[in-house]
Amino acid sequence: PLMHTYTYPSKERAEYLEYLIEQTPAQFEKAYLISSGTEATETALKLMRMHGKKLEKRKGGIICFDGAFHGRTMGAQMMTGDLSARDWIGYQDPNIHHLPFPYPWEVNREQVQNFFNNKIEILLRQKSLDPNKDLCGIMMEAFQGWGAIFYPEDFVHEVISYAREKEILVAFDEMQSGFGRTGQLFGYMHYGIEPDILCCGKGASSGIPLSIVMSSKEVMDLPDVGSMSSTHSANPISCVAGHENLRTILDDGLIENSKNLGYLLHQELNNIKEEFGDHCKHIFGKGLLAGLVFTNSAGNPLTSLCDNISEKAFQRGLLIVHTGRESIKIAPPLCITKDALLEGISVL
After folding, report:
1. 10 Å Cβ neighbour count for 185?
2. Which of 16, 86, 106, 259 lies at a 20 to 30 A Cα distance from 266?
3. pTM of the complete model beyond 0.85
4. Per UniProt, which keywords does this protein have (predicted)?
């Protein structure tokens, strides 16, 4: 069987898992292989709550952030920071909480220093929560997907410090940022911290359905045998794809290519912003990832303009992503050449 393996082992699975653990940071001692990003983030939700139960916390509280996106299934949508995206569910898990995201146009550098602590203290008072007893996890993206907007580094350090003090696990959703996209192996590495749980997909295999959850043995061994499985998980085709994909990224220097050409990409995009500053207000991202945010002089979103730009670019052979909001995302192949990158920018 090439696609249906359930929990049965294979040589391909063993070789990939061994290589994956060898090539990733030391705290990631075990990995769980599944098929989609939403499965991975829901697995992280489960692990954070199981860890909270092990510590005998009375509630399975999870902190998430406004504007974030974590998947299409119910638990992932509960964690998503867009109320309209989870409205179909009909109710909100009372133990999943959302804090404001520190957007740079709303929070200045001085405010960032205590932004997280101030906002979580308000939440704790409003909901009569004790963080030592009622919170067990924090779910973060490496950046907000819709605009490639990274958190301020001080903010992330504040989150990590708080979590360590309160025995709260921190999970990073790296579906869009993992495996070299931002000029680092993982997006969280830009912050100089180490999360407890890592959720990856997309770039893990570059096309074949594969997602990954990694953590310590202590966390990954929390579920009983048989309670973490999936029909297509760790099938040989996905494992070979994941293995060869990671080997190519590392051996062919694609992370370095993302970093180096990322500087060029952002330099050229900022030149576009300078020329069309009445419409293009922000350029975000790192490495071969960029988000262009379009608003008018009053700060109102120019969503239809993003439609027009994306369509015209498509007609001229350039694929870019209109996110559905006032932004366009650019994420060229990690193996792109300088000439091809400049050609794409010239079309834009």
Report:
1. 19
2. 106
3. yes
4. Aminotransferase, Pyridoxal phosphate, Transferase
Backbone angles phi, psi at 65, to 5 degrees: -130, 140
CA distance 113 to 294: 28
Last residue of a domain, one of 251, 269, 297: 251
Q: Is residue 98 included in any domain, yes or no?
A: yes
Distance of alpha carbon 45 from the chain centroid = 14
Q: Are 46 and 251 in contact (CB under 8 A)?
A: no
CA atoms of 291 and 328, how far apart (whole Å): 6
| Domain of residue 215, CATH code | 3.40.640.10
In a domain, 221, yes or no: yes
Burial of 339 (0-12, 13-18, 19+ CB in 10 A): exposed
- Map residue 220 onto helix, strand or coil: helix
Token pair 């959703």 in the structure block, residue: 173
**Do 42 and 21 lie in a common domain?**
yes
For residue 170, the enclosing domain spans 11-251
Tally of structural domains, the chain: 2
Give the DSSP letter string of 282-300: EEE-SSS-EEEEEB-TT--
Alpha helices in 177-301 (DSSP H): 217-220, 236-251, 254-275
What is the rounded CA–CA span in Å between residue 156 and residue 101? 11
Per-residue model confidence as pLDDT tens digits over 275-305: 999 999 999 999 999 999 999 999 999 999 9
User: Residue 2: inside a domain, yes or no?
Assistant: no
With respect to residue 31, please indicate whether it lies within any of the assigned structural domains. yes
How many whole angstroms separate alpha carbon 142 and alpha carbon 198? 10
Q: Which tens digits make up the pLDDT trace of 55-96?
A: 999 999 999 999 999 999 999 999 999 888 889 999 999 999
Cα gap 130→148, rounded to integer Å: 33
* Residue spans of alpha helices (H) in 10-145: 11-23, 37-54, 74-79, 83-86, 109-112, 115-127, 131-134
Question: To the nearest 10°, the Cα dihedral for 185, 202, 263, 279?
Answer: -140
Do 237 and 260 reside in the same domain of the chain?
no
